[in-house]
Amino acid sequence: MLALTLPIGLVVGITLGALGGGGSILTVPALVYLLGLDPRSATTGSLIIVGITTLIGMLPHLRAGRVRVGQGVAFGLLGVGGAFAGSLLSTAVPPPVLLTAFGALMLFVAAVMNRRRRAAARDQAAGPGPVEARTTPMVSLRPLHCDCRAIGGLVLTATAVGLLTGFFGVGGGFAVVPALVLAMRLPMRVAVGTSLVVITVNSASALLSRLGQDVTLDWGVIASFTVAAVLGSLVGARITARVSPARLNLAFTVLLVLVALYTAALSIPELL
């Protein structure tokens, strides 16, 4: 089991470090289909793995100046209510339904990632323009400043991300990164680093809401997976500074589609 857990955790960690919280969506299917955990144990264990990995994986981004801690904490705290609600909802859903919904989520994320890649390519072809002006954060704790016209959308996005974290045990970074770019007006590389702060906060709050639930955790798998993922996240943080974001995005999108189709092929027949 250890020989399988370590390389899988390493791959998930690399995607987390290179792409921000979006890479965490691979954790649950890896725990279920490759390591044999049941869906509820996998989603709970994923919160532990993702929370610790993103917390440590954030450090290289922080040293490189790609993290806005204040904005990340604020966004994460706005999603706490959604994280608690998602955790409660997950206990009422049968495992096949949970996995089928997870497959649909991965296809949606793949579509979002592909659209983001194409938009970035168009922006690059058009040259410097209005996008470069998005360097002033919409929400800042030093000094406190807020563009109240967008605060409603920010709260809704943060709540939705928290709901996904609590329900599926994923970070929701695919939604956090564009939200930080569009609502808080952070540059893309800074949004990737800051998304790790958001995912850490959301994972912790969702995990707290699951305390007391009847879930059995395989601590050996979780511990070894976490160690490998942490190491992978440190490697991924270096990759994001050296490899074209478009290539990373494309590779991750293809991987998501393959995993989503595999998940659907196994879970949908159980619903029939």
Topology:
Layout: H1 2-19, H2 27-34, H3 39-63, H4 69-78, H5 80-90, H6 95-126, E1 140-141, E2 144-145, H7 151-168, H8 173-182, H9 188-209, H10 219-239, H11 245-271
Antiparallel strand pairs: 1-2
Protein architecture, described:
This protein has 272 residues and is mainly alpha-helical. The protein has one domain. 74% of the residues lie in helices and 1% in strands. The chain contains 11 helices and 2 strands; from the N terminus they run H-H-H-H-H-H-E-E-H-H-H-H-H. It has a two-stranded antiparallel ribbon. A hairpin with a 2-residue loop joins strand 1 (140-141) and strand 2. Helix 2 (27-34) crosses helix 3 (39-63), helix 3 (39-63) packs parallel to helix 10 and helix 5 (80-90) runs parallel beside helix 7. The two termini are 32 Å apart.
Approximately how much helix is present in the residues? Answer: over 70%
**Major sheet: order of its strands?**
1-2
- Strands, count: 2
Number of domains: 1
Biggest sheet record = 2 strands, antiparallel
Q: What is the general shape?
A: globular
Rounded to an integer, what's the Rg over CA atoms? Answer: 18 Å
End-to-end CA span: 32 Å
Structural class: mainly alpha
H/E element order: HHHHHHEEHHHHH
Strand content: under 5%
Average pLDDT level: 79
Number of helices: 11
Low-confidence stretches: 130-146
Task: State the main characteristics.
single chain, 272 residues, mainly alpha, two-stranded antiparallel sheet, 11 helices
